[in-house]
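The methods section describes the discrete structure representation at length, but only in general terms. An entry of this sort, consisting of the sequence and the corresponding backbone structure tokens, reads as follows.
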Amino acid sequence: MTRAKTVYLLGADIGNTHTVLALWELSKHLPSEAPLKIWRIRTEKDLTSDELEIRVQSLFQLQGVHTSQIKTLIISSVVPSLSMTFSKISNRFNWEIQTVTYQSPLSFKISLNEPAEIGADRIVNAEAALRKFSPPLIIIDCGTATTFCVIDHSKNYLGGAIIPGFEISAQSLFQRASKLHSVEWVIPKTVIGGSTKEALQSGLTYASASLIDEFTRKIRKELSPSHPVTVILTGGVSHYFHEILTEIDYFEPDLTVFGLKEVYKNSLKKPGFQNHSKVNLNENLDLR
């Protein structure tokens, strides 16, 4: 008897700086609890579909997976050009594709005046956080930007705040200050730096952590002054300083990946929710 071919769910969280790909084995349409593999690659916004195909196939080969084994691709993206590039290779490989939006099946309500404006990464973070923790919640994602997402006790997504990411702030400083040069981002032993290098390292870590802590305190007070609020930290930059934060309850570096899987599982329970297996390639779009 021929053994049935293993099929997979592929998740893609496309950020401005990095793209995270995750692979789950599917059994009766349900993904495995933990991803089989997570890859983190640099985001290149002008990547062509041919170049993306080569990269994806190379990663799959290392894992012993063929493109024909992917059943569905689910995308969380803040880079429209790469969303279309992923869509194009999905069509090429005949994968089903889901793109996370405010209209995706979710376990919470988006209570915003303009729900279409919410980033897909913030949506999947909220979905993941609610699967792991009880509201009210504050979700902090440190990446190209640092975002604060707020969910009340009734699972209403209220909004939050967006500030420049710490790597962007550091790059701006180094570019504009002639005598300051890039340093390794490490946590110094003391807040008072004994050299320019140590002073920069102190500012990049302790000042960044202080900003997150103070902002979190203000949001916590406004959200629920008399009841506990759970605070979750995630994002590609968060590992630099999560150990020195005082207002964080849980560090979840793979929260967004987990959220992609949960949104996909939600779609299985919604017969009316459609998997978009094809996109219109005749539109006036640069698909590269």
Q: What stands out?
A: The chain has two domains: 7-102, 109-255. The domain at 7-102 is CATH 3.30.420.40 (Nucleotidyltransferase; domain 5). Helices lie at 49-63, 80-93, 120-132, 166-176, 196-223, 255-268. Confidence is low (pLDDT under 50) at residues 276-288.
